[in-house]
Design goal:
A hairpin with a 4-residue loop joins β13 and β14. About 20% of the residues are buried. The chain has a seven-stranded mixed barrel with strand order 1-4-3-2-8-9-15. It has one domain. The longest helix has 11 residues. By secondary structure, the protein is mainly β. The chain has three helices and 15 strands.
């Protein structure tokens, strides 16, 4: 019997279709092992020389980056900083608010965490300042400032914190849904310069996981 050689390639293709090459399994990245890099430029002339930036976590000091003479900022936050600092949970944090009304503050899902909202210039030539990621929007007459700040929260596992914290007349609403690793949290409040006080309620809202931030920065006078 004559063999139909022309059918062999089709048979080979059919065999290959029945035994496809397995797709390589890609292991998911553990976000708790990733660092966060934050860059941008401070509004206004802040420094005239390059200076180191430091952050303080529960009394521990860490060098986190640089502010250049042109007021550009580069900051890196690592999981090692979380591991080196004393670990606290949101329940610990809430329990520490002994002078505040926490009855409407809910730790729905607890986790160990660390928050970084500012860095200090390591300065000897200029008056001390702290810098924070975000921006300040002034009203036309300059009497009202709306602060739109950013804070970076590192969570060891998922966390959910909701409700209100009342400390004297200072009211803060929380709507935090944090993922493992670094998270961006938007903080907004209004300051009345005539009253020299924050008016209304501060708002803390989570804005998802983050590994890079590039945006505006604001310089504040530090009482240190």
């Amino acid at each position: 019997m004559k063999k139909h050689l022309s059918l062999l390639p089709l048979a080979a293709l059919a065999l290959a279709a029945c035994n496809p090459t397995p797709t390589p399994i890609v292991e998911p990245v553990d976000a708790t092992t990733l660092s966060l890099t934050a860059t941008g430029k401070v509004d206004g002339d802040v420094v005239t020389t390059d200076q180191k930036l430091k952050a303080y976590f529960y009394g521990h000091e860490f060098e986190v980056g640089m502010i250049k003479a042109d007021d550009t900022v580069s900051m890196t936050l690592t999981p090692a900083m979380f591991d080196a600092a004393p670990r606290k949970t949101f329940t610990d944090w809430k329990a520490g608010m002994t002078n505040c009304d926490t009855s409407k503050l809910n730790v729905v899902t607890d986790a160990h965490f660390l928050s970084v909202s500012q860095a200090y210039r390591d300065s000897t030539a200029d008056a001390d300042h702290l810098i924070r990621p975000g921006e300040v929007v002034r009203s036309a007459d300059g009497s009202i400032s709306t602060y739109k700040m950013v804070s970076f929260y590192y969570a060891k596992s998922k966390a959910v914190v909701t409700g209100n914290l009342l400390c004297g007349s200072a009211s803060t609403n929380f709507n935090l849904q944090l993922y493992p690793g670094w998270n961006k949290v938007a903080i907004e409040y209004t300051y009345n310069h005539d009253l020299d006080a924050i008016v209304g309620t501060r708002e803390y809202k989570s804005a998802g996981g983050i590994q890079t931030y590039s945006g505006k920065w604001v310089a504040f006078f530090s009482p240190k």
